[in-house]
Each structure stands twice: as structure tokens, then as C-alpha cells.
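Late entry, written up from scratch paper. The run itself happened at the end of the previous shift, but nothing got recorded in the book at the time, so transcribing now.
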Amino acid sequence: MNEIEQVLKSHQVRPTAMRILIYKFLGKNNIAMALTDIESIFDKSERTTLYRTIKTFEKKGLVHQIDDGTGVAKYALDENAIKNGPSQDLHLHFHCTSCNKTSCLTDHKIPHISLPDGFITEDMNLVIKGICDKCSGS
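Output as recorded:
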């Protein structure tokens, strides 16, 4: 059994050929991908299969959804949850205004924010917008 199959099984996801391909694709690209981006790569596959795979990955903690302000949900592998199990890993995201790609900055955590009494946090997302290292030439 290969590493991807082990990861999927450890998250109670049956390792079908399509799931393995999508997992490999997300891991290789190392950026957040919109469902339409995934559909364009796997153009011979049914949209519902791709959608269900991403939603299964999200439910099982393999990917997380990112709202980068573009109006399109994007998905990225949740490396911390894959290695350490489910977590509330709140890290920064960076959206490049030049190439329009969104990246997880997993080494940069969102600081704890104290809310007034009576306020309950349900979700938190911090996206920094600017020019990425590839577009800036750094």
C-alpha cells in the first residue's frame, strides 16, 4: 500500500483511483484550487465525482476550504491535519493579485483574537493580498 492510500485510509476515506489522483494533484500543486480548476484538469471525469471527492476530503479533514475574497471557494490539502489529525490550525492565506493564485502560509498562524462577551467565533479566515514570490521575482 502506498503513502497516499495509507493517508486516505487513516482518515476513513476509501482510496479509489479518482481520490488518489485528486489527492496527488492537490499535493503536487501546493496552492489552493477552485473546483473549476480541478474540473479542467480532470476534464474526462464527471463533475459530481470531483465535487463529491473534494467534499469528502473536506469532511474527513484532508482539505480545507478557503475564501480568498474572489467569490470562488478554493481547496487546499490540510497538511497539519493530515500529519497530526483533526485540528483548528488557523494559518494565514496569501492571494497573489498578479497570478491570482492562493497559497496556504501554514508556518504563519493567525493570532488569538479576544472577542467581547457574547460573541462566538464559528470560523476565521485571514487572507493577505499582494504579489507572491514568483511574480515579484524574489
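The chain has one domain: 3-136.
(Scratch paper discarded after transcription.)
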